[in-house]
Design a protein that fits this description.
The protein is of the alpha/beta class. It folds into two domains: 50 residues; 111 residues, no CATH class. Helices cover 22% and strands 31% of the residues. The chain has five helices and twelve strands. The chain is elongated. The N and C termini lie far apart (61 Å).
Length: 215
């Protein structure tokens, strides 16, 4: 081989400089790999934060390479064309840690939740969406089922049976008016604990933009 492929997608050879400067695109590619890895459960939230901070402050390609050295390779088209979408993903968990799907995770065609007394959070803010409908078969007892839905993601709860449970929909009119990108259909049964549907939390910049003048 003439050289090794770095996590940024560039090939290094015998004549390449070990202190080659990292570009914004190089940093962005590493950040994408880290977020996908976190969404797949390969990194904890603390590890993700540490590596993201290191990636964004990296000055050279050598600074970036260790950040993804222990992670599986990610296709350059992950999250867009050619991504592998599973027909069914089943999550079974009882009396253990929270179940989270956040960051750049790939939305399957159907999701089965068989969960007892574990919080479940499905964040669609940065999810890879390749179809217009996601069916979630719910068999969940206790704790909270939270769906974080950016504009364009709608939630249909008509097929969900609630037993000592209720739905808290915290989305505004602006969220409901956006063109539909994904329809999430909840079916099955939720016993005890609420189902919360809410928009993503605003960033500091978004919050400042919404403040009244002079506030």
């Amino acid at each position: 081989m003439s050289g090794e492929m770095s996590p940024t997608g560039k090939r290094s050879g015998p004549g390449s400089s070990p202190e080659l400067r990292a570009s914004h695109a190089d940093r962005d590619r590493v950040v994408e790999v880290l977020r996908i890895a976190a969404g797949d459960g390969l990194l904890t939230a603390e590890e993700l934060d540490e590596r993201l901070e290191a990636a964004l402050s990296a000055r050279t390609l050598n600074d970036l390479i260790p950040l993804t050295a222990d992670l599986p390779p990610v296709s350059a088209t992950a999250g867009v064309a050619g991504v592998q979408v599973k027909d069914v993903v089943r999550i079974e968990q009882v009396h253990s840690g929270a179940v989270e799907r956040t960051g750049r995770w790939v939305v399957p065609r159907r999701l089965e939740l068989a969960v007892t007394f574990c919080d479940v959070t499905l964040d669609f803010s940065d999810a890879v969406i390749t179809q217009d409908t996601l069916r979630i078969d719910v068999a969940m007892t206790g704790k909270t089922l939270t769906l974080i839905t950016p504009p364009g993601v709608v939630v249909d709860t008509d097929g969900l049976q609630l037993v000592h449970s209720r739905i808290k929909d915290r989305r505004g009119a602006a969220d409901a008016a956006a063109p539909v990108v994904l329809r999430v259909e909840l079916v099955g049964q939720k016993v005890h604990g609420p189902v919360v549907v809410r928009p993503p939390r605003r960033t500091l910049g978004q919050w400042l933009q919404r403040r009244p003048a002079g506030a």
